Amino acid sequence: MIGRLFIILSLGCGCGYAKNVDRFSKGINESSTGITAPKKITLKQAELIALEQAPALGRADFDSQAAKQGIIEARSRFFPQVEGDVTAVGTSSASIRIGASGGLNNPTILSREANGINASQLIFDFGRAANLTAGAKFQALSEVQQEQMVRAQVLLRVDRTYFSVLKAQALLRVANQTVAARQVVYDEIAALAESKLKSDLDVTYAKVNLEQAKQLVLEAENALGVANAELSDAMGFGELHSFTLRDEPQFPFPREDVGSLIATARDIRPEIVALRDRVKAFERQAIAEKDARFPRIDALGSVGRTTIGPSSVQGNYAAAGINVAIPLFTGGLLSARQREAMLQASAEKKSFQEEEDQVVKEVNCAWFDASSALKNIDVANLLAATAGQALELAKAQYQTGQTSIIEYSQAQLNALQAEIAAASAKYDYQIDRVQLEYQTGTLSLGTPGVIGPGGTFESRPKWELTRGRGRNEDRRTPDQNLQIVNPNP
Question: What are phi and psi of 325, to 5 degrees?
Answer without folding.
Answer: -105, 125
